[in-house]
Amino acid sequence: MDLWLSLLLVWITCVLSVSMTPIIGQSKSTQTGGSAVVASGVGEGQRLLSRAKRGWVWNQMFVLEEFSGPDPILVGRLHTDKVENDTARYSLSGEGAGTIFAINEKTGDIHAMKRLDREEKAEYTLTAKVTNAITGQLLEPMTEFIIKVQDINDNAPKFTEGPYHAAVEEMSAVGTSVITVTATDADDPVYGNSAKLVYSILEGQPYFSVDPNSGKIALHGMDREMREDYQVVIQAKDMGGHMGGLSGTTTVSITLQDINDNPPKFSKSLYEFVIPEDLPLGKEGGKVKANDRDIGENAKSTYSIIEGDDQGVFEIITNATTQEGILQLRKPLDYESKRNYTLKVEATNIRSEPRSNGPFKDTATVKIVVEDSDEPPVFSKPMYLLEVDENAPINKIIGTVTARDPDATGSPIRYFIDRHTDLERQFNINVDNGRITLAKPLDRETDMWHNITVTATEVRNHSQISRAVVAIRVMDINDNAPEFATEYEAFLCENGKPGQVRKEDVIQTVSAVDKDDPIQGHYFDYRLVPEMLNNPNFTIKNNQDNSISVLAKHDTFRRQKQEMYFLPIIVTDNGNPPMSSTNTLTIRVCGCSKDGIVQSCNVEAYVLPIGLSMGALIAILACIILLLVIVVLFVTLRRHKNEPLIIKDDEDVRENIIRYDDEGGGEEDTEAFDIATLQNPDGINGYLPRKDIKPDLQFMPRAGQHSGPNGVDVDEFINVRLHEADNDPTAPPYDSIQIYGYEGRGSIAGSLSSLETASSDSDQNYDYLREWGPRFRRLGELYSVGESDRET
C-alpha cells in the first residue's frame, strides 16, 4: 500500500508540473512555416493554447520507474502544426526506441512498453522525426530529447562492510567512540527523501548509543569483568526515518579490552606450612596464590616477604605459568634453634595502570612450623688443617676432629677414614674421639700434602653420615744432604797454549741443590776434602751465591802424564743438624785447536797420524762397516738360494733320499696341493693350470685327449702334461712337485704293504702298537687277533 501511494503522489506531482510549465526547453532548429509543440503527460484530445515561435519546441519527459499497470504508460506526445489533413508521420530513434519506448506515428503519443528501473538506467536519449506521409519530406528538423526515469523508494539501505568487529577499553569515558558504520541506498539522493538515511540501535541499549546521522557508535562506561562481549544491532532507515521508509540492519561485535583495574587478592588471609628441618636449599616448602580478575599482563603479580624473616632464611619466587608464589629455603633450618616462623607475604601487580594510583597490592600471613628430623652429625669445622713433621714416629697424634649430633637425642658419634682418600693407609683415627695418628713414616720430599676424608656416623642410625676434609701438611726437617746440581765434567787444554789455560783460570762453576726446604732458605758451604787441601793442581773459590768456581793452579797439564783428574768437594747445608755430602768433579785434559776449541780428550787421539782428524777417522770406519755388511748379506743370500727339488733322470732314487720334517695335514689337508688331477682320469676335460704360480700371461691350452672309460693311460697323460709344462712360456724356470693320490692300475713288483704279513711265520709282538695312542690301537688289535688265530 505504501509503495502504490508513493507512486500515485509522484505521478500527480509530475502531471501538475508539466501542465504549469508548457515550455521547458528551447528548440534546436527554426522553420518559417508553423510550429511544433511537445506535451508531456497530457492526455489525448488536450492541447496547449499558448503559442510559441515557429519550430520544434521540446521539454523533458518523465516516466515513473517500476510502473506495472495493465496498459503501457503514456510518457508524452510529439506534435507539429505544419500538417493538414493528418498527413504527418512521427517516428523515434535512439536508446530504447522500438523496444522500451513506442510512438504512435499518427498522433505522436509515446508509451513505455516495459517496466523501468532507475537504478539500472536513469535517463534515455532519443531522436524525434516528423515527415509528410504523402511526400516523405521532413516537416521538422530531427531533434534529440531526453526521457528521465523518475525515482521511487524501491531500494532498502544496505551495510556493505558488515558484520563489524570492534574493541574498546573497559571503563572508558561515556561517549567514547567505538566504531562508525555506514549504509548506502541505491535510490536517487537528489529527488525526495528516498536516500536520506537515519541510524538507530535495535539491540545493545543501554550500553551503547549511535549517532542517527553519522552512524558513530559510542560507549557508556562498562566493566569487562562484568561482561566482555556485546552484540549490537544497528538499523539504517531511509525516507528520513519516517513511516513508509525502507530499512537495513547490521551486527557489530564489540569486545571490551582489559585494563588493570583490579588488585590481586589472596585466596586466604592465613597460610600454614609444616617444613622438615632437613629440607634441601632451593626446594619447595609451600605455595601461596593471589588471584586477579584481570587477564594477561594485567593479572601478573610478583611475591615478596616484607616481614618476619630478618635472618633471610626464606625466599619466595613467582611461578610464571601458574602465578603462584613458591616458598623456598635460602638457609638451612634448625629445629633445635628455632621451631616456628611467622612471615608476611605481599603480592603486587607487575603492570601499573596510568589511571590508577599505583600498582595494586595484597598481603597475607604465612605461619611455618619446623618439623624435627634425624639430622646427620655436624663437624665443628667444614675443613681441618693439620701439620706433622716428616720424621714423626709411628702413632704420633697429628690432630683431632670433632662432630656432634644436632638432634635433641644426642646420639654418640663414630669416626672413620675414607680409605679411598688414603689408599696407602698412612693414617689412623680413633673411632670414639676422632684423634688422627700416624700409621706409616712420611717423607715431605715425596708428598708434601695429604688430603683425607673423615666420616662421622651416628651410633643409633648408621645411615646418618657426615664428611669433612682433613688436609695434613708434612713439615720439613733437614734430612737430605746437598749434592751437585748435575754431574759436572770439566775440560782444560793441555800445553798451556796462549789464550787457553792460564794460572787461576776458572775451569768450572759448580752449584748444589737440596731436597729440603728450610724456612730461612738454603746456604751451602763448599770445601775440598782434607787430603786434597794441598793438591798442586786445583783450588776452589766461593762465589757468594751458593756456587763455587774451580781454578787451575798451573798451565802445564799433559795428557801423556795424566789424562783425567778427580776433585772431591764436600758440600754442607745450614740445617739443624747440618747435612753434608762429598761430590766428585771430573776434569779431563784435552787437545785443543789454536782457538781453544776442544778436539780430543784421550791418549789415543794424541798418537794419530798428523793431518788425520777425528771426522775423517769416523768416515773411514763407517765405510769399512758398510762393506762388511754387504759381504755378509751376499754370503747369506748365496747360502739360502733354492736348489732344484726334482730328481735328475740319471740319479737313482734309492740313493737320493730327501727328508722332510713336515708331516702334513693328513686326509683333512686339501688345501696344499690339487690332488684331483689323477684321482679320476675319466673326468679330466681340458687344461688344468699350475697351482704353484699365477702366470702374467694366460697360456691357451690345447684340447686334451679324451680317453674312454675303459682306456685310461696314465703314463701318456703324464707325458702330455710334462710336455705342456716344458713348452709353457709363462711357467717359471724350475719344476715343482705335486702329489697325486692315484697309484696306478698295478705293478709287477706286487704289494709292499706289511698288512699282509699276518700269515707269515714271524713271531713279532705287536702289543707295543697299543701304546702309541688311539690311532695305532686298532692296528695293534688287528695284528693281535691274527696271532691268536694262527695259534688256534
TrEMBL record:
Q: Which domain of life is it from?
A: Eukaryota
What sections of the protein cross the membrane? 606-635
Instruction: Tell me which PROSITE patterns the record gives.
Output: CADHERIN_1 (PS00232), CADHERIN_2 (PS50268)
Where does it localize?
Cell junction, Adherens junction; Cell membrane
In terms of CDD domains, this protein maps to:
Cadherin_repeat
User: In its UniProt record, which GO terms are filed under biological process?
Assistant: adherens junction organization; calcium-dependent cell-cell adhesion via plasma membrane cell adhesion molecules; cell migration; cell morphogenesis; cell-cell adhesion mediated by cadherin; cell-cell junction assembly; homophilic cell adhesion via plasma membrane adhesion molecules; morphogenesis of an epithelium
Task: Extract the InterPro entries matched here.
Answer: Cadherin, Cadherin-like_dom, Cadherin-like_sf, Cadherin_CS, Cadherin_Y-type_LIR, Catenin-bd_sf
- Kindly give the membrane topology term recorded for this protein: Single-pass type I membrane protein
Q: Which GO terms describe its cellular component?
A: adherens junction; axon terminus; catenin complex; synaptic cleft
Instruction: Identify the SMART domains for this entry.
Output: CA
Q: Which UniProt keywords apply?
A: Calcium, Cell adhesion, Cell junction, Cell membrane, Glycoprotein, Membrane, Metal-binding, Repeat, Signal, Transmembrane, Transmembrane helix
* Protein name per UniProt: Cadherin 8
Organism whose genome encodes this protein: Oreochromis niloticus
